[in-house]
Amino acid sequence: MSTVNISKHHPDAYRQLLALDKLAEEAVQRAGLDPLLAELVKIRISQLNGCAFCLRMHTRDAISHGETADRLAVVAAWWESQYFTDQERAALALAEEVTRLPVPAPRIWDDGTLTDEQVSAVTWLTVVMNSWNRVAISSHYPVAP
Questions:
Q1: What pLDDT was estimated at residue 28?
Q2: Is the separation of the CB atoms in 128 and 99 below 8 Å?
Q3: What is the pLDDT of residues 12-28, one digit of tens each?
Q4: Which structural domain range is residue 71 located in?
Q5: Could you give the angle at which helices 11-30 and 116-138 cross, rounded to 10 degrees?
Q6: What is the DSSP string of the chain?
Q7: At 127, which CATH number?
Q8: How many folded domains does the chain comprise?
Q9: Residue 145 lies inside a defined structural domain of this protein
């Protein structure tokens, strides 16, 4: 099978995903979540999906929001570190659950740390980020130094 950049072949679908991405980002803001938390969620989802393009982009975005090298180094094993707040840990656990869709789900994030609005915002952010990962991976977006 040849490599097909699906965003170029169906630009209207790509634009709709951009619009959904904007709505998810607005939901994150309205829910009172830190933009840095959103970048951590995007990074973790991209790690789970193996999307180098999105990992590079969102790691750079996290750094521009003030993220540290130490926290970025351990986000893949966030549950074993003490670097993350309770809210960040809940959001990362929720994002992993939505990405992996385990059955039955352990729901370790569901401890009351996130409000219903924040749960909804992180869930939408995760749905959108999973979509972006699949666009970038299936289209073989280039990732080079």
A1: 95
A2: no
A3: 989 999 999 999 999 99
A4: 10-138
A5: 150
A6: -----HHHH-HHHHHHHHHHHHHHHHHHHHTT--HHHHHHHHHHHHHHHT-HHHHHHHHHHHHHTT--HHHHHHGGGGGG-S-S-HHHHHHHHHHHHHHH--SS---TT-SSSS-HHHHHHHHHHHHHHHHHHHHHHHTT-----
A7: 1.20.1290.10
A8: 1
A9: no
The answer to whether residue 144 sits within a structural domain is no
Structural domain includes residue 5: no
pLDDT of residue 88: 97
Question: In degrees rounded to 5, what are phi and psi of residue 32?
Answer: 75, 25
Q: Is pLDDT above 60 for 1?
A: no
Please state the pTM of the whole predicted model: 0.83
pLDDT in tens, 34-78: 999 999 999 999 999 999 999 999 999 999 999 999 999 999 999
Is residue 1 a part of any domain in this protein?
no
Q: Nearest Cα to 41, choosing from 27, 58, 65, 18?
A: 58
